[in-house]
Amino acid sequence: MIKDKNLPHAIFLDIDGTLMESAGAASIIYGEIPERNKKAILKAQALGHKVLINTGRGYACLPEACFDKSITFDGFITGLGSYVEVDGKTVFRNDISDKALDEILEYVLSNKLCCRFHGKYKRIYADPEKRIPTLWEWIDSKESFYEMLGDDRISKITIDRNLSGEYLEFLSQRLEVYRHSPVIGEAVSAGCSKSRGMMLALEALGIPTERSIAMGDSINDTDVLRAAGTAVAPANACDEIKSICEVVTLSDVEGGVGAAIEELLL
């Protein structure tokens, strides 16, 4: 818990279901950050605290709301810790290797599987049924993939429909896989995690771990919530997450992030 709120703290915020209501892929364009959250973040920053995003989303999938002129974040940890940016500078980046990416691409296309590829600037989707319109670049061949990718690099992939045992085994031999259900998972280069991303950001900021506050609602937040000095869950979080947090705040739609910042630091 907070010992001295007058000392600078670093706040790490999950996006979906925490900073803002989870709206899936559509939130890239349409998601909004509750006003209570914005006001509390700005007040905390004015007092010298740092506020960073820490999300499973790849950088290219960050909601436009995160770049709204009314609010500025002090850093971004994206793709489950595969990319860390602090004060506009990249302090860590661990992209999926060319070999692993090419093998995964071949496997996905030849087996007609769904897979989202997250870059810093590009979001590319392999899905025979093309179920998410306009927000992603569609590919149906290696040639179209690499043409769309250009100079960008892939830091994370998401499997959102068909993570079977065979698919899981194939990915696990090449990447670190975070499985959220029998059919859904995320994969990054080995060693990447939200908690490691937080530690790298804290080092760059010169803030000790005990003055870190992590807020998250889902299973992929477990490691960072356990590692942080203070862990906060919104009311809509699953029970497993609530059980490891010192603070349970209001829900995502009620401005729970803002309420927690007010309680802990303002």
Q: What is the fourth-level CATH superfamily of the largest domain?
A: HAD superfamily/HAD-like
Distance between the terminal alpha carbons, to the nearest Å?
14 Å
Here the CATH topology of the largest domain equals Rossmann fold
Q: What gross morphology would you assign?
A: elongated
CATH hierarchy, class of the largest domain? Alpha Beta
Task: Kindly give the count of domains.
Answer: 2
Strand tally is 14
- If helices are DSSP runs of H or I spanning 4 or more residues, what is the number of helices? 9
Which class do the helix and strand fractions yield? alpha/beta
Primary descriptors:
266 residues; alpha/beta; Rossmann fold; Hypothetical Protein, Haloacid Dehalogenase-like Hydrolase, Chain: A, domain 2; 2 domains; eight-stranded mixed β-sheet; six-stranded mixed β-sheet; 21% strand
Describe the structure concisely:
The chain is an alpha/beta fold.
Describe, in plain words, how this protein is organized in 3D.
This protein has helices spanning 27-30, 35-46, 98-110, 142-149, 165-172, 194-205, 222-227, 239-242, 256-265; strands at 10-13, 50-54, 75-78, 83-86, 89-93, 115-119, 123-126, 137-138, 154-159, 176-179, 185-188, 212-215, 230-233, 247-248. By secondary structure, the chain is of the alpha/beta class. Helix 2 packs parallel to helix 9 (256-265). The protein is elongated. It folds into two domains: 10-94 and 192-265, HAD superfamily/HAD-like (Rossmann fold, 3-Layer(aba) Sandwich), CATH 3.40.50.1000; 98-188, Hypothetical Protein, Haloacid Dehalogenase-like Hydrolase, Chain: A, domain 2, CATH 3.30.1240.10. It is built from nine helices and 14 strands.
